[in-house]
Amino acid sequence: MASKKIKRRKYVTWDDAFHGLSQTVRQESARVAAYTQALYVQACADQFCTATKEGKERIQGKYADLSFKCGMYHQLGKALVPPEYQLWQEDFTEEERAVYRKYTSDGRLLMATLQERGGDEEKMKGGLGENPTRNIPWLMLRESCEQHMERWDGSGYPAGLRADEISPIAQIVGIAKALDDLCANTKSENPFDDAYRTLVAQAGSAWNPALVEVLQAARAKCRGIYKKYIHYTKTLPATIPLVEKKKDRPMGLTYRPMVADDKGTVVAYEAIPWFAGVAGDPGKHESIAELEAMFRRKNLTLDISFYLLYEAADTVFRSENCQLNLRAVLLQMLPDFYTSGTQLQRLLQLFKDQPIPKEKLMLTVPAELIAKTAKSNLEIMERYLRNGIVLLVDDYDPAVLPAEKLKEMGFTHLRLAPTLYGTPEIALAMTRLHQAGFTLLGGEVEDHKMLSWLEKCHVSFASGPITGLTVSEDELIRDALAREK
After folding, report:
1. How do residues 301-357 score in pLDDT, each as one tens digit?
2. For residue 385, what are the contacts with CB-CB under 8 A and spacing of at least 6?
3. Nearest-10 crossing angle of helices 375-386, 344-353
4. Is the peptide bond before 158 cis (omega within 30 degrees of 0)?
5. Which domains does the chain have, with CATH numbers?
6. Burial class (CB in 10 A: 0-12, 13-18, 19+), 233
7. pLDDT of 409-427, one tens digit each?
8. E strands along 41-194, which residues?
């Protein structure tokens, strides 16, 4: 930002200023308002802060609706700056941090100005200002704007207030905001519980111990608010899988890490189907290849495929809920899936049932199938691609299947046959494919030398015995969370 001058926007009413906030900030404010009101009602019941004159004036049941407004408008000062400065960024410069933090004191001035000038456009031309007032609702709104980032131990801003110097309503809005921030940014499958435990542990430091007792008493109400607003946040409670995962189920997926470099940075997982139930050997698992003919003969291909699709989608969904930095899950598909007639509507329904980015669930399709299948089946694949389904051409050989044909069909992801790895000719071919816009993946990598070679050949990520042991879905989530902490 350097010393760039920011032109302040002008508003006439609270709602006018509120709509000057970015959509993300407005959504945050709506959630904070709901938490604030629930906590405020509990604070009244617990007689929170009523030992002081200021507390008695502000903690009264008649102000329950006002407390909602205090939460809704607490970030009003952000409306004075452009959207790029309304959300905190870790890479802000010192000057940008100062601009951001000023929204608290600016918010008080903006709130006071809008209160005092009553929507009169002529009066608003005079700029921001505040006159002393004894109007308690007005003061509560101003204090919520200015003091909600102050902390009990004096570590907050803008003034470094501590303990009872902080207005009771600002304390409530502050912990409501912190609860929402933690719920939205905690990498966990139980973000509300983790956020709650964090705030309780901060009693006596960030928060008034009496306020934490209010939070504990209102826990169930706050959890209900969290569940109500989950569609507006990036986090959700632990998912209920659409596929039933009993211990004795006859099929499922294991996941092998896919790494982005020779240092072993895990960025994706390859989902490998397994099938059990072998007579006389209940611990034995079989592969797709071993059972494909049986699935075809018994018309099970589509049912099996969608079972595995939903399980893989559930894994992506869980990783999204935890905000894990995973690029994708690559599912090994039954080749017969692509010759069974169009399944586009069922695929699109899957992405409605499990609302995940389509690019994060990639499906394999053998290069040999593309080279030899009927035109009608190729048209089905093209329809999938046009609708955002990511198909990876597996075991690809540039000498057998022209890249131009794949590009024309809409394919963008390739994995070369591992038997081709290691030659200068293939390295050059992979470079050309990368330059043509294809995303390259690798497989069956057995040593670091091959992993390093693939990285130099522009492979985005690869899997194989060297990239890690296969894990269950729960282990995948646990391990990924551990890596990011």
Report:
1. 898 899 999 999 999 998 988 888 899 999 999 999 999 999 999 999 999 888 899
2. 391, 409, 410, 411
3. 30
4. yes
5. 14-232 (1.10.3210.10), 251-484 (3.20.20.450)
6. middle
7. 999 999 999 999 999 999 9
8. none
